[in-house]
Amino acid sequence: MNERQVVLAITGASGAVYGLRLAEELLRASVRLTVLISRPGFAVLKEECGLVLDGDARGVRETLCRHFGVDAKQLAHYAEDDLFAPIASGSAAPDALVICPCSMGTLARVATGVSGNLLERCADVMLKEHRRLIMVPRETPLNEIHLENMLKLSRMGVRMIPAMPAFYNHPRSLDDLVDFVVGRVLDDIGIAHRLVRRWGEGAGTGD
Questions:
Q1: Is the pTM of this model over 0.85?
Q2: Which of 7, 33, 37, 138 could be a cystine partner for 97, CB 3.0 to 4.6 Å?
Q3: Nearest to 135 by CA among 163, 175, 113, 95
Q4: How far, CA to CA in Å, does 24 sit from each of 79, 114, 124, 168, 183?
Q5: What is the torsional sign of CA 8, 37, 182, 151?
């Protein structure tokens, strides 16, 4: 069985913890993971999660590997202006790209075909190659432009999994709320997990 390759992009939307938790689960599933981080994404990771990622792309990769406890064979990282990265070409498109969390700015640029950096170029590649593209939008309230962009991308086959945790599983902590959203993303990629109680495994109501 070929090793699955997934790209995880973390943007400047609030909710960086979703991206970090998703990365943990993907690495646990032995997925070959590439992490992309937008410039605002670095700032939010520091502000919300206390994760400081300074230096060049190699330094960021080393810090990420230490943070997740993996070696460089399983985790890659490229600078946002590195359009020579393999994932910038359809000939090396990954199995899936997850933008988590996804800012409305990133969503809008993808929706209009703007490829100003590696993250946006990778999204463009996923669309043109008809590969799995998942967005986890994190914004509230949503205006008409946001909704129109989501609808446009959804009609192209992009999966929209907004950061909207459910409560039927009786969450007891912030981790439980995060795990619910991450679990839905993993379900969509087809990666097994035990992050949340499935419907029918106990009392509750559907989401």
A1: yes
A2: 7
A3: 163
A4: 21, 30, 25, 24, 12
A5: negative
